[in-house]
Amino acid sequence: MSDRDAVGQLNDLDLIVEAARQAGDIALSFFRQSPEVWWKNEGRSPVSAADFAANEKLAAILRPARPDYGWLSEETDDDAERLSHETLFVVDPIDGTRGFLSGLELWCVSVAVVTNGRPTAGVLYAPALEELFVATADGPALKNGKPIAVSDRPEHDIHRLAAGEDMLSGFDPDFRKTVERAKHVPSLAYRLAMVADGRLEGTIVKRNSHDWDVAAADLILERAGGALVDLFGHPLNYNRADVSHGELCGASSARLPEFLRQLSHRRNG
């Protein structure tokens, strides 16, 4: 049996874990090595040789293994053909490229399998930290093979929250006093993983995140006892024509209603 045949026979989670590990190790070989950088989105977003190399490895492993799946990647030109697929891969070769290029370790490879608009398998691999988060729709969320869960700190305790100061400005003054802002985490996916493993109670996500930023982390957070929702409390749908999202909130299920109440003034913002 060829290596390609062996990969093709893996279940979806094992397949994307193997792909994420290989892509992450390639990205790690560029880390702190001053890779070539280009700018996209009218000069607002950097992309590096590491992003492209990791993307090529993901595509080389995943697409031949599941030729009937669609494909959506931050570093591949979007093709509306993906909309005709019930199931697709949603990948971000390096989530947190700015941090990666600054030499920070808080970046990861994000890979999800999405079926009928919701993730069914997800992996976040942070090679610089030697951390691997995984989940399936019917299993636990795991970090390096061990189950994780959202914070169980009492609701009256301090709320560790990753969010911009502007997003907290409309909070009730008394509630704002209970919020401890976390240090900036350049990878959105990793920030959601920090909610999933209990290091944060929640995070507020600015407008214009994309499917590839959040699909895998969404599932990992859900299986850890939390949720990623829009400001009306609705879960996200993936593989739409428009892959961007409005403002979001990710939190433990116990804290989410209060966070959404505090954010209600932003629903039409």
From TrEMBL:
<feature type="binding site">
    <location>
        <position position="74"/>
    </location>
    <ligand>
        <name>Mg(2+)</name>
    </ligand>
</feature>
<feature type="binding site">
    <location>
        <position position="94"/>
    </location>
    <ligand>
        <name>Mg(2+)</name>
    </ligand>
</feature>
<feature type="binding site">
    <location>
        <position position="92"/>
    </location>
    <ligand>
        <name>Mg(2+)</name>
    </ligand>
</feature>
<keyword id="KW-0479">Metal-binding</keyword>
<dbReference type="GO" id="GO:0008934">
    <property type="term" value="F:inositol monophosphate 1-phosphatase activity"/>
</dbReference>
<keyword id="KW-0460">Magnesium</keyword>
<keyword id="KW-0378">Hydrolase</keyword>
<dbReference type="InterPro" id="IPR000760">
    <property type="entry name" value="Inositol_monophosphatase-like"/>
</dbReference>
<dbReference type="InterPro" id="IPR020550">
    <property type="entry name" value="Inositol_monophosphatase_CS"/>
</dbReference>
<dbReference type="GO" id="GO:0046872">
    <property type="term" value="F:metal ion binding"/>
</dbReference>
<dbReference type="GO" id="GO:0046854">
    <property type="term" value="P:phosphatidylinositol phosphate biosynthetic process"/>
</dbReference>
<feature type="binding site">
    <location>
        <position position="213"/>
    </location>
    <ligand>
        <name>Mg(2+)</name>
    </ligand>
</feature>
<dbReference type="GO" id="GO:0006020">
    <property type="term" value="P:inositol metabolic process"/>
</dbReference>
<dbReference type="InterPro" id="IPR020583">
    <property type="entry name" value="Inositol_monoP_metal-BS"/>
</dbReference>
<feature type="binding site">
    <location>
        <position position="95"/>
    </location>
    <ligand>
        <name>Mg(2+)</name>
    </ligand>
</feature>
<comment type="similarity">
    <text>Belongs to the inositol monophosphatase superfamily.</text>
</comment>
<dbReference type="Pfam" id="PF00459">
    <property type="entry name" value="Inositol_P"/>
</dbReference>
<dbReference type="GO" id="GO:0007165">
    <property type="term" value="P:signal transduction"/>
</dbReference>
<protein>
    <submittedName>
        <fullName>Myo-inositol-1(Or 4)-monophosphatase</fullName>
        <ecNumber>3.1.3.25</ecNumber>
    </submittedName>
</protein>
